[in-house]
Amino acid sequence: MNRTFPKLLLLVASIVVLTVVNLVIGTVSIPVADVWRILLGDESEPVVWTNIIWKSRLPQVLTAMAGGAGLAVSGLQMQTVFHNPLAGPSVLGISNGASLGVAFVVLLSGQLGGVALSRLGYLGDAAMSVAAIVGALAVMVLIMWVSRKVRGNVTLLIIGVMIGYLANAIIGVLKFLSPEEDVKAFVVWGLGSFSRVSGEEMALFVGLMAILLPLSMLLVKTMNVLLLGDEYARNLGLNLRRARMLVIGSSGILVAIVTAYCGPIMFIGLAVPHLCRALFRTSDHRVLMPGTMLCGAALALLCIFIARIPGFEGALPVNSVTALVGAPVIAAVLFRRREIVNS
């Protein structure tokens, strides 16, 4: 525990540094002193700089921190409940459910309503967020119902994967039948972005995550017991079915909210728990939960910085950057497990 606190402080410091970097660096570079004065409400600063900070960069930073932390915690919960190091937030098809909800709204809007949702501006964005939440929660309710009928985690995992494939199949049919403009709008949403949330939407999203993340900490003891194995946990008096539903429900709600506002962000939930285990060298969730939140926020901030490194016009898709960071981590996990098995 003595070594844990300095590492947590290091993660907090990295978040602060990356926050400052993301506020300062971009297509328009703004000095740190001017950023500080803008945040303090100094009206003498240029209006353009003020708008960039308050309407673009600060909302993106806050959204990335909240979204990264939520996905990381969700990934940790999934890996714990399924005892699978390659389980992630999308393993049960919840992200696919969100995508399916958006697909129904985006890809059918032009055919049924005569007006493409991509042309409706703020109203279209709000409709996509609501559709994503409804789709994700619908799949999560289905998974929760199935979890009461099956006993094995492997069976539940396979059912979740099949739900994801079914959702993708329906999305493929909708794409084939939809006009090009609607398909493009759906593809852009599917690339994932921390920059599409602003204003009241950003405040609501960050507020929801500020409530859900502390609530997920209440499951720390349950997750520690689940690590001991089903038989040992049952002997300790843990209701396995109830515990599994609570952890899956918590993970599913986090994924649903993040996907609704930011789109399907890949690899953060899969890679961050492994980074935290390597950093803290423990499986105790009293350490891993706060560490995962901080590490997820830091990694998301790093990804949005890389996505708009000076020299690029605009920004790269976030999923392209998260894949570049997350894929090597997953490969390292696979090789490490192989070495342990061979030894």
Show the helix and strand layout.
Elements: H1 4-24, H2 32-39, H3 47-82, H4 94-113, H5 122-149, H6 153-177, H7 180-190, H8 199-216, H9 220-226, H10 230-235, H11 240-262, H12 268-280, H13 285-307, H14 318-342
Helix pairs in contact: 1-3, 1-13, 3-8, 3-11, 3-12, 3-13, 4-5, 4-6, 4-7, 4-11, 5-6, 5-11, 8-11, 12-13, 12-14, 13-14
What does this structure look like?
The protein has 343 residues and is mainly α. It contains 14 helices and no strands. The chain has helices at residues 4-24, 32-39, 47-82, 94-113, 122-149, 153-177, 180-190, 199-216, 220-226, 230-235, 240-262, 268-280, 285-307, 318-342. Helix 3 runs parallel beside helix 8, helix 4 runs antiparallel to helix 7 (180-190) and helix 4 crosses helix 11 (240-262). The longest helix has 36 residues, at 47-82. The protein is globular, with a radius of gyration of 21 Å.
Number of helices: 14
> How would you classify the helix and strand content by structural class?
mainly alpha
Output the radius of gyration: 21 Å
Overall helicity: over 70%
Give the distance, in angstroms, between the N- and C-terminal Cα atoms.
Answer: 30 Å
Number of strands: 0
Order of helices and strands: HHHHHHHHHHHHHH
Overall pLDDT level: 82
Largest sheet: none
Q: Which ranges are low-confidence, i.e. pLDDT below 50, for 5 or more consecutive residues?
A: none
Beta content comes to under 5%
Gross morphology is: globular
